[in-house]
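Hi there. Long-time user, first ticket. I'm pasting a complex I've been working with (about 224 residues overall). I'd like to know whether the download I got is complete or cut off, because the file seemed smaller than I expected. Thanks.
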Amino acid sequence: NAGVTQTPKFQVLKTGQSMTLQCAQDMNHEYMSWYRQDPGMGLRLIHYSVGAGITDQGEVPNGYNVSRSTTEDFPLRLLSAAPSQTSVYFCASSLRASGRTDTQYFGPGTRLTVL
Amino acid sequence: GIQVEQSPPDLILQEGANSTLRCNFSDSVNNLQWFHQNPWGQLINLFYIPSGTKQNGRLSATTVATERYSLLYISSSQTTDSGVYFCAVLSGGYQKVTFGIGTKLQVIP
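Hi, the file is complete. Here it is re-exported in full:
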């Protein structure tokens, strides 16, 4: 298994540009989520999904969209990039949405800079 | 929402020393995990431990759910233990995971 994969690893955008961060997992996990990590603030949940066709907002959803058309993929879209979205983005997945018995597995991260 | 506090924020250890990291949380939890983020940024799951005690080599963890805290023990520390240790919880009926801000550990030779 490849686990959780993310592309790209690095990205530089100009203010106002849009882009999609890709996340895929090959473990048939129900639960997928996106986090951003900023210095001194730990990881904050952006959006999550408990299965194909079902998504919900996390702690910091503004400026981001998600969709879950398949079990494997969970892309994160930046609609109009802002310097405040400069961060490292992590995708994670776990087997079941309830989370009661399952660990989360993280992708390698995408480092995004918005100029 | 639930609050997660980790202590200490920073820790410097001599190689071979032992340490205890603490995670306090403000509400009952269904799921608690400890992660290690290595200096290259990769997040590695250490323990899934909503209650009780687990051990994995030099690392062990204990969660006392009724008192709302968890401890991560590192024994005989090695330089490869350096990085940031995060506690993350899933609380109540929610499916949102909340992370603490982490403990930054540096192990020096």
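A couple of notes from our side: Residues 88 and 99 of chain B are 4 Å apart (CA to CA). The interface with chain A takes residues 1, 30-31, 33, 35, 41-43, 45, 48, 50, 86, 88, 90, 95-102 of chain B (CB under 8 Å).
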